[in-house]
Amino acid sequence: MPGKSNLVEHEAPEKLLTQRGLFAGPSQIVSEDLYAEVKRGIAERERHRMVVHPNATVSMNTYFGRFPASYWQRWCVSPEVELELEVTGSGQVALVASDSEGETRTVVAEKVAGAKAQKVRLTAKIDKFTDGGGLWFDVITAEDSLVVEKVRWTVAPPKTVRPTAVVICTFNRVDDCLNTMAALASDPEPLKLVDTVYVVDQGTDAVESRERFAEVSAALGPKLRYIRQPNLGGAGGFTRGLYEVTEIDHAEHANVLFMDDDVLCEPEIVIRLTAFANRTTQPTIVGGQMLYLLHPNFLHVGAEYANLDTLAPGQVVEGALFNADLTGYDEETGKRNVQDKRVDAGYNGWWSCLIPSEIVKAVGYPLPLFFQWDDIEYGYRAREHGFATVSLPGAGVWHADFHWKDWDDWHRYFNLRNALITSALHSRFDPKMIVRGMAKQFATYILGMQYGLAATQLKAIEDFLKGPDFLADGGVQAAADIRKLRAEFPETVRHPASEIPGFKPGSLPMISAAPTPKLIAPVFAKRLVNQLRGKSVHEAGAVPAGDSAWWHVSLFNTAVVTDASQEGVRVRKRDKELAVRLSKQGAKVFRELYRRAPEMQRAYRGAMGKLTSRDTWSRLYDL
Predict the structure, then answer these.
(1) What SUPFAM superfamilies does this protein map onto (predicted)?
(2) CATH number of the domain at 10-155, please?
(3) Among 12, 228, 457, 510, which one is most buried in terms of CB atoms within 10 A?
(4) What pLDDT, in 10s, does the model give residues 2-30?
(5) Of these residues, 195, 260, 374, 375, which one is catalytic?
(6) What pTM value is reported for the model?
(7) Which residues belong to CATH 3.90.550.60 in the chain?
(8) pLDDT, tens digit, for every residue of 407-436?
(9) Which residues, other chains included, contact 423 with Cβ-Cβ below 8 Å and sequence gap of 6+?
(10) Contact, 200 vs 239, CB < 8 A?
(11) Is 375 a known active-site residue?
């Protein structure tokens, strides 16, 4: 679908909608308790309407029900927020606030009796939330019921409203992509805020080849821009949206909202991210949060950062919720698991993330990293230029659980290589610290008989040492090469648990791990000596995924380890000759990394401008 979008600033409405009050999710797998909690009695919760029966209490002190007042006070220019809702029946509506410790206070309350589609408006100043706290409303009934609907949280609008483009990057996930497109098309109010939906298809199985594409396209109408291009990974797919938007005349002040193709999309996120971006004091990256798709009540993390000195992504900011059941309560305090304390993120994942066009103009486009760490690098580069990242509570989508993805996969190459690049660009890049950490990882791979993973790590370092020119093709050749390399190692192949090569059904005992050793170093030395001597405690056995630590797996000659995805098993076999060969290669590679680290840091920093330029991406897109 050729043609450019017409992204222009919009005339401001009388009130800027920041979020709606929803009482149920976009899918039946999502608990209504994430939206409205029935604390007493009975209430019927629909998407946009709730019936609270007599003698009942419903609280909107929930993940999607709260207004994140602390974040609005810290980052935005709005002095107050208005809650408007329509009620029918009798009862009380109370606007409630919390502080950073979760202590609550009632701001204002109103009782209605015999109301018929009556408007209730409650206002709160956003002035006592610097360190934390939120706003929500509670509904209480006595002898009669109360119907609540058309709930809107609004603030004073800016002079003009920024245009927004949504960018969906997809690669051979046709049904997932169509589901995400359909979710956006299904809700008219957030869709009205979107000027363009870019679907960047990098796959061989084209989204447009399905019959359903015509239906979804019609629902999105002229907003849809469908683009086919070579597979340049997530970096190349999302950057195409930035590339297109920044080419448009009069789009100097635009929002570009990234959306993964395989999320369960909550369309409400469009309203919440764009409203926040429209009212920040300075252009700000506004990130959506990630809830687990397999466990929809759980939040991945409230805010995260990367330790660039140790190449460790996904570090939890102190005070942030992590792996938290959002419908549960804290065991110590007895309070609902909500993000009362304000926490500041280092970066936000691109499962859903809004980037203002001004930031692109100031810092350039993302690096052509293909996959992994592209979001981290961009977040830290923006920060160095004075642009913050906010992970906004209550703005979330559901994405595949990270801990159900096995670490021993081809993508680990990009994780390691791109971590080195990001660290070289944005940290002191201490050779001693970097090499020590990577060498420890390497040793555990060897002991755990993950020879393909060890080879993957060495390949990542070797390619990093080739310098920035290696990124010239956007990672296309690297993606092919790492798959070819890993195919040489049998333990990288996943087998059905019912068809394990070399073993008859029922012949493998399940051997669970002992407790984690208190003294790691002596255990490490002992396992290493035993492997060199060819000694083992177990000849063969099955190992659950949760027990697959190196100090347990290294006790086996053959370990059949459950894949983290729970979709099969990997067969790890001890190979002393291969272990020695890889170890010698590793020693050579680590020595070179240590010696050449300062040189590589200078090279990547010197090439940053070229790598992130429009010309580079224009060439990669063959435009």
Answers:
(1) Nucleotide-diphospho-sugar transferases (SSF53448)
(2) 2.60.120.260
(3) 457
(4) 455 668 888 889 999 999 999 999 999 99
(5) 375
(6) 0.95
(7) 162-290+342-397
(8) 899 999 999 999 999 999 999 999 999 999
(9) 308, 309, 311, 429, 434
(10) no
(11) yes
